[in-house]
Amino acid sequence: MMPPIQAIMIGAGQRGGEVYGEYAVRHPEQIRFIAVAEPDVERRQRFAARHKIHAENQFDSWEPLLERPRSGQAAFVCTQDQQHVAPTLAALRAGYDVLLEKPMATTARDCRQLVAVAEETGRQLHICHVLRFTPHFTQMREIIRSGELGEIINISHRENVSWWHMAHSFVRGNWRREEDSAPMILAKCCHDLDILIWMMGQNCTRLSSVGNLKHYRPENAPEGAPQRCLDGCLAAETCPYYAPFIYVDLLPLWRNYADTSKGFPRLVTRAQQRAPGLVKAMAGVAPSLRQISEYRGWPISVLAQDPTPENLMAALREGPYGRCVYHCDNDVVDHQVVNMQFEGGASATLTMHGHSHIEGRSTRIQGSRAELQAIFGYGGAWIEVNQHRSDHSIRYDTSAEETSGHGGGDERLMAEFLNSIQIDGVHFLESASPLSTARQSLESHLMAFAAEEARLDAKVVHLAEYRR
Ligand SMILES: NC(=O)c1ccc[n+]([C@@H]2O[C@H](COP(=O)([O-])OP(=O)(O)OC[C@H]3O[C@@H](n4cnc5c(N)ncnc54)[C@H](O)[C@@H]3O)[C@@H](O)[C@H]2O)c1
Predict the structure, then answer these.
(1) Ligand 1 centre and the CA of 275: distance in Å?
(2) Atom number of ligand 1 nearest to Cα 15
(3) What DSSP state is assigned to residue 19?
(4) Angstrom distance (rounded) from CA 453 to CA 462
(5) Pairing mode, strands 97-100 and 370-377
(6) Do domains 5-127 and 132-216+330-409+443-467 have the same CATH topology?
């Protein structure tokens, strides 16, 4: 049996620590983290303890770690959007194969530099386009490629970000300001643009775009709303964005799970919505229910390392997530539409907005022989194909078996990345692998930059010119 891949972690935050780090804890035969770079002391110590990393392999930033001779085969770069490029270039030059979080970079020039250095050094550089690894989009791609739909005429794809996820990440949270992170069409939808090209097997030739920040602005605040929800807001009982409702009661999260799952998970999350005390009592005899009654994951893990109700309330009193959504310093859009034309002549629209009641992507594909409709939600997913001639309808359950994030995408992404690295450093990337090389990811990122330019300048962008 092959020994586990030895890896280094750069940025042990939500993605690095909770997603990829926890994968290593579940699969010690596949991967072992042997060094960590993380400036936040609590996070660094927690990651080091969880992976038994020696003190001499713990660093408060990536530079001293990457100045040392290479130790291990793989580097995970999971820093925030604007801190991807420098550590990735250094890791490639030090000889690591790299798994880099999306977006690969926040400018076209930086994206191109990453592609060039990955190709020069001959190292693997893969971008975490998690949707490619889900049973849902894998199945949809197979259906398109099988010819079952006939010729693809039009795709209408929606990224329905829920109102509370929007508020969490793009109004109160890390991705609220373009200057500090990225335009929302890049931060949220590089996945969607990537999945469209990946499914179609064609590039986009031209696009246009409209959108703006319509709702989360001071003029829409309830009358007299203070800067923070806990400072005596008169709308506490009625405002959906009242922070304790989102983070302490967690009702929107359970509602999402209940509405998009089925069977036992649906029953339990419904019960958690209506009678959390009952689920807590039942967890005494059925420990698996503690995953729900003692939930500690996203989004509350972002507010506090130990998200007890007391720590959460402290975070809401002082931290960014307790701010009134109408009094934040956000500037990214809350809705945007991109119109696209593909090489083969098909058209597509991507609608992204942050006002959905239930989170999830939805897709409708018009083919010359059949129509496809699909929902990809938090707790479940399905695809339905209706054939024109027979009126025969086929329904696929594309829910992930694993409970991992992004509809099973996080788990499979890791497995594929690790499979692609051979222990002696020889690359082994199957041509059918959904892994997205830097060169492949460049295309979806260029589309996002082009869409932003089209939106801001009210123009049509021709991708051939843009690529040049
Ligand atoms: N693939 C996906 O679907 C997906 C989903 C969510 C987020 N992301 C992306 O993942 C990235 C990380 O997001 P997150 O939510 O984990 O953020 P996070 O803020 O929780 O984690 C980033 C970590 O990087 C650390 N860091 C900062 N400077 C550093 C340095 N000099 N050296 C080493 N570490 C440093 C921070 O202290 C922090 O702990 C972002 O780019 C985000 O857009 C991708």
Answers:
(1) 35
(2) 16
(3) I
(4) 11
(5) unpaired
(6) no
Provide the token pair at 340.
């696209």
Q: Tell me if 361 sits within 8 A of 157, measured CB to CB.
A: yes
CATH annotation of 132-216+330-409+443-467: 3.30.360.10
Helix residue ranges, H only, 261-333:
263-274, 276-283, 290-293, 300-303, 309-318
SS3 269: helix
Q: Name the residue of 18, 36, 80, 301 to mutate for ligand 1: max ligand atoms within 8 A of Cβ.
A: 80
Ligand 1 proximal residues by C-beta, below 6 Å? 10-16, 37-40, 43, 61-62, 78-81, 83, 101-102, 128, 130, 174, 187, 406
Sign of the dihedral defined by the CA atoms of residues 242, 316, 19, 296, in that order: negative
Compute the distance between CA of residue 145 and CA of residue 143 in angstroms, rounded to an integer.
6
Residue with tokens 């330019």: 453
Q: How far is the CA of 320 from the centre of ligand 1 (A)?
A: 17
Tell how far the Cα of 15 is from the centroid of ligand 1, in angstroms: 6
- CA 437 to ligand 1 center in whole angstroms: 20
Peptide bond into 299 cis (omega under 30): yes
Q: Where are the domains of the chain?
A: 5-127, 132-216+330-409+443-467
What is the residue-level pLDDT of the chain in tens, covering all 468 positions?
778 999 999 999 999 999 999 999 999 999 999 999 999 999 999 999 999 999 999 999 999 999 999 999 999 999 999 999 999 999 999 999 999 999 999 999 999 999 999 999 999 999 999 999 999 999 999 999 999 999 999 999 999 999 999 999 999 999 999 999 999 999 999 999 999 999 999 999 999 999 999 999 999 999 999 999 999 999 999 999 999 999 998 888 888 888 877 788 788 888 887 887 877 778 777 777 777 878 888 999 999 989 999 999 999 999 999 999 999 999 999 999 999 999 999 999 999 999 999 999 999 999 999 999 999 987 789 999 999 999 789 999 998 876 567 778 899 999 999 988 865 444 545 557 899 999 999 999 999 999 999 999 999 999 999 888
What CATH class is the domain 5-127?
alpha beta
Q: For the whole model, what pTM was predicted?
A: 0.93
